[in-house]
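Task: sequence in, structure out. Protein: RNA polymerase II holoenzyme cyclin-like subunit.
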Amino acid sequence: MAPSRSNHPPNTTNGDTAVKVGPHPGFISSSNQYTTELKLRRMLKDNGCDPARQDSYRLQGVQLIENVREYLQLPVRSFDTACTYFHKFRLNFRDAEYNYQDAALASLFVACKVEDTIKKSKEILAAAYNVKNPEKPTTPDDKIFESPGKIIICLERLILETIGFDFRTRYPQKLLVKVVRNILGKEDGKEFFNTAYAMCIDMYKTFVPIKRTTFSMVMAIVELTALMREEHLDKVQEFAAKRRQYHRGAVMETMLDILDLYSQHYKSTKLGSQFDLNKMIDIKIRLNHDLEKAFEPRYLFHCPRCEAEDPQPSTPASATSPVTSATLAGDASGRRTARGQDGTMRFVFDPDSARMEQETVKEHFHEEFEEYEVEVEEPIPPPPQHEGGHRGGYHGHGHRERGDYRRGGPYGGYRGERHYRGRGRHY
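Result:
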């Protein structure tokens, strides 16, 4: 019995009864402005990142962005945007696929375009070279930047795909000025603001900018500055109590993330050498004690069971080849295709529209199969003839040919077959 046809109505155009397969509907990617701590850890775990090496690359990459920004005299908005792109890119690609310095410079290159402070790729590379070699400065037209320039341009495409062509970023420095002036005034808050501003720059060496809203970041910086300077804490708490958008759990998580940076990597920060390390550890212990007293978790939306699951290594963005200096030096068009298939990756800005479209297309990818068994009669060929003229029957020693005792006689038998009947994909 042959497998049955699909249950979908056939296309009878020109007498053709087969179901025609249309073009692939493609894949949808929708950007996400915020990421939870659990998702960050899962992405790092799936990428197989070493925690110590991952922290080192993150700190060095952000510091490189800051040094090049100061050398080129770019606004702090470009720094904020570049660090955000850098963090998102590193979460989606393994460390072995690229050089973190190339990723940092490519992120700054994209950020300059987004913030309308356009710089050529060779200008950024020359600035990075001059920062590292101040005794031997060079110009952007030097031939040594030909190959790295192609790598930066190719990484630019991957960064755009990583962020989903969503160029929205957050700039806490602007809101920080307004909040400090509102709490302390223009003249009394200068020293306080200088400390808070330096802490705001240090904050971008953590994953806080891709986790929290602008107001949560600003309030965490202001409160932590008041705790470290031991002043104006009452005014800060009074200001926070009047704000509806203030969320204590998000602010506490942000402050603890910044304190983790200062307690573990204080030499790589601006404020690490200005305050006593023991004082920062005491503040951290006090905040953790407050969380335990209020029965609040350390991280919002955290699930210990999900974190303990085994990693699921996958190739982000379905890479066709690793992004290394060797593969991109000669070809700037090495782009990663959507899922490594023929479908086109489309970027949708509205999550609701993307969800509705996925639900509509989902039913066309659903496969149904029905399994059943049938018995089919299968004839068995006669035994071969021998030279002595005997065919089957008995032989001189009382032996019988093997074929005589087969099930169903010498010319009968059956064989069980398994058939599948189902409905495949059609789109």
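The chain is about 45% helix and 5% strand.
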